[in-house]
Amino acid sequence: MHPKNNFGFTLIEIIASLVLLGIIAIVISLGFTRTIQEYRFTQDNAALTQKAQVALNRMLIELSYYNSSGTTATFNTTEFTFPSNVGTNANITFKLNNGKLTYKDTSVDNTERTLCDEVSALKFEPTWVNGLLQNVNVSMTLLGMNGVAESFSYTITIKNINN
How many angstroms separate the CA atoms of 84 and 94, rounded? Predict the structure, then answer.
């Protein structure tokens, strides 16, 4: 009898090693996939917040200098129209239009511009004191990734500088 040489691996050992490596690779790839999904979700929510902030800041700029004495503003829950500080017979309108928050200033032109998209709800709540508009609470809900709704609310104080 010749002594048996035990050099190398058997076929069963190689197959078992490949199966274990495959299982480890699957677990690692699932971890990477989950991390990438969480990153994309975070990025989408950050972009959503930024969109809402830009839209609310534009409303703040336009509404804060509105002079409510002697002028008329029209409200409903999803639309607010008020006279522009520039030009006569010019109006500024903010409204919800097919999932978009739009802005129109007729002193510039009659074009509706989109301030923010993915808006599922918009609400204007004015507060009047002695016939003067004091503030407007603006609430809006935007739909983010995977249908997650983010709500934003801002109270704009009217300066009424001519009063």
Answer: 12
Q: Answer whether 0.90 is exceeded by the pTM.
A: no
Q: Percentage helix, strand, coil, to 5, in the chain?
A: 35, 35, 30
| Burial of 143 from C-beta contacts in 10 A (0-12 / 13-18 / 19+) | middle
Q: Exposed, middle or buried, 6 (CB in 10 Å: 0-12/13-18/19+)? A: exposed
Residues belonging to the chain: 163
pLDDT in tens, 5-18: 667 788 899 999 99
State how far the Cα of 6 lies from the Cα of 112, in Å rounded to an integer: 82
In terms of phi and psi (left: phi > 0; alpha: psi -120 to 50; beta: otherwise), the region of 91 is beta
- Which residue type is seen at 84? S
